[in-house]
């Protein structure tokens, strides 16, 4: 890809991210579940925005999962276990400016299947 096209795609994602974050915020009872997707892996965090604290996090590199649908299902299942251990049953899904399609949609659906209400 040309550099200008790549910069434009990133800037448009950041604009979408800011629009989303202006409307949602997490608390200790109802944390914001934020997703970051790189070309190689996925990262998920449960964040309490009131105290500015990360309640739970998982890194796809440590689990050796790729940023595809199968990897998203595995990492979401493991993250749901971590959330349940911390007695968090529901959250607000922050797709972080990414389109709700493919990997991001598979991750959200897998969280729901594993008992986390989004």
From TrEMBL:
Keywords: Ribonucleoprotein, Ribosomal protein, RNA-binding, rRNA-binding. Coiled coil: none annotated. One of its GO terms (cellular component) is cytosolic large ribosomal subunit. GO terms for biological process: translation. The keyword DNA-binding does not apply. InterPro entries: Ribosomal_L18, Ribosomal_uL18_bac-type, Ribosomal_uL18_bac/plant/anim. GO terms for molecular function: 5S rRNA binding; structural constituent of ribosome. Belongs to the universal ribosomal protein uL18 family. Part of the 50S ribosomal subunit; part of the 5S rRNA/L5/L18/L25 subcomplex. Contacts the 5S and 23S rRNAs. PANTHER family: 39S RIBOSOMAL PROTEIN L18, MITOCHONDRIAL, LARGE RIBOSOMAL SUBUNIT PROTEIN UL18M. This is one of the proteins that bind and probably mediate the attachment of the 5S RNA into the large ribosomal subunit, where it forms part of the central protuberance. HAMAP family: Ribosomal_uL18_B. This is Large ribosomal subunit protein uL18. It comes from Campylobacter novaezeelandiae. The lineage of its organism: Bacteria, Pseudomonadati, Campylobacterota, Epsilonproteobacteria, Campylobacterales. The gene is rplR.
């Amino acid at each position: 890809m040309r550099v200008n096209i790549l910069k434009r795609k990133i800037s448009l994602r950041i604009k979408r991210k800011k629009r989303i974050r202006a409307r949602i915020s997490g608390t200790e009872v109802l944390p914001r579940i934020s997703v970051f997707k790189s070309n190689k892996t996925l990262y998920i965090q449960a964040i309490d925005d009131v105290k500015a604290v990360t309640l739970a996090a998982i890194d796809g590199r440590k689990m050796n999962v790729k940023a595809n649908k199968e990897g998203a299902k595995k990492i979401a299942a493991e993250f749901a276990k971590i959330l349940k251990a911390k007695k968090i049953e529901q959250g607000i899904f922050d797709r972080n400016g990414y389109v709700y399609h493919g990997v991001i949609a598979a991750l959200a659906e897998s969280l729901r299947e594993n008992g986390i209400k989004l």
